[in-house]
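Final paragraph of the annual report: two paired records, presented back to back.
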Amino acid sequence: MTSYRITKFQGSPLTNSPSAVLWDLDGTLIDTAPIHWQAWKEILVHENYALSREVFASCFGMRNDTIIPMWLGPQVSAADITRIADAKETRFRELLEVLPLQLMPGVLDWLARLHQQGWRQAIATMAPRPNLDQMVRQAGIAKYLDAFATAEDVARGKPEPDIFLTAAARLGVPPSRCIVVEDAPAGVEAARRAGMRSISVGPAVPPGSADLAISSLDRLPEDAFHRLLDSHP
């Protein structure tokens, strides 16, 4: 398993106070929804459950131990939840090896720009650590990132704030100096509960939920992160 260490931050040229961007992974940095959809469909066939795209989309980004009982019913045992989740994530990583892995539009430019400007950057995701390691390796983006927080690091998933607070602590940045980039309503709500500003990307987040909404990162104004951080009370 590939693992990435937290790099020592050398300071920001823009401010005496450290600032950070906390990135969601699936659907925000990398377009993994089609791969997750395929993996879930294949695994749930064996559980006699037909997953619809609408149900899948409504739960995207949530923890497996939350969504499996939602889909299969509260009677599903803890052992079965673990078995199904492990099978799905194993299949997901197998599919990653054979299907194209695409960064979302604008992601690489923003990762490089923020890194050059001195922002600390972390991925905060409810994905398992092996998934993150494989995606970061295949996408070639490790050099831009200073820390990671994954499902194994917290007891509660989004919309609870734990994953973002953990990532901020690992970066050594207070929540008030963090901006979260998310594509899911639960992630935007988690950012709000963490006391952080948020940028929503894509159509899934209801209007007015995030501090700034954008259809795609390649349409984000160049000063968006600075202006958003400066607007924090």
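The closing record of the year follows.
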Amino acid sequence: MTTIPAYFNILITTIKPINNDIVDNTASNNEYGIRLDNSNNNDIVDNMANNNLYGIYLDSCFDNEISGNIIANNDYGISLYYSYTNDIVNNTASNNEYGIYLYYSHTNDIVNNTASNNDYGISLNYSYTNDIVNNTASSNEYGIYLDNNDYNDIVNNTITYNNVGIYLSNCNSTEISNNYFSGNGVDIQKLEVDDPFPIEVVLLIVLVISIIIIIAGMIISKRRRARAEIQRVPK
């Protein structure tokens, strides 16, 4: 196991692909504060990342623990891309555009974090079967924001003083239970995308087609009768 010592103003990447400890570092004013690519079973613990484009960034990473970090004033605080079965626990993300952000990342646990004064406290896009449990989302534009996600659980969170507490768009089978809401502009906002073919439209189309078929049948029948009358006229 490798332990990376504490430095100031550095970009930290994995020294070897698995089983690293990244502990007690301060990473500031970088494009990436702490970045892991294709790296598994690492502990990213008790670091500070501020004023970076990405505070802590994981791409295609599995089974990592991200805990006890203080993430502030980044564009993206803690962000996971195409990453699975990671634990994001007991972190503080404040004054970022995105406090905690998941993109195409599945089966992760987001537990006991504090996200405050971000544009998006906890945000998931195209991410499935994640657990968002026992977090505090306070004074964000959006406390918890889900867009195009299915089968996620949002349980036992404290969601206060956000413009929108929980926002859902194009989300199916999402459990929202036992959360505490206070002082939000809107506690839960769901954007329902209109069905491109609602039942009323389908019925109208069926009716129009039926009328066309009936009229066409009447015209054909009338023409047949006319031909029959012509054939019966003696020459």
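The helical segments are 199-232. This concludes the annual technical report; the extension proposal builds directly on these records.
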